[in-house]
Amino acid sequence: MSILQWLGHYSVVPMTLVFVLIVAATYWPSRKRKVEEQGKIPFKDDV
Transmembrane residues, as ranges (predicted)? Predict the structure, then answer.
């Protein structure tokens, strides 16, 4: 089995872990206020 085939077959697990870590870091309870503030940006009036 070549290296590219091996990476293609076994890269799903590390990528899934990276995705879960990014989501967990983004939505960690201590960051809730900052995430909510950024989510309200489109609803603010441009004056």
Answer: 6-28
Look up the pTM and report it: 0.58
pLDDT, tens only, 6-30:
888 888 888 999 999 999 988 888 8
- Looking at residues 31-39, what average pLDDT do you find? 85
Give the 3-state secondary structure percentages of the chain, helix then strand then coil, rounded to 5: 80, 0, 20
Q: How many CA atoms lie within 13 A of 23 on its CB side?
A: 6
Would you list the DSSP string of 1-47? --HHHHHHHHSHHHHHHHHHHHHHHHT-GGGHHHHHHHHTGGGS---
The domain locations on the chain are: 3-39
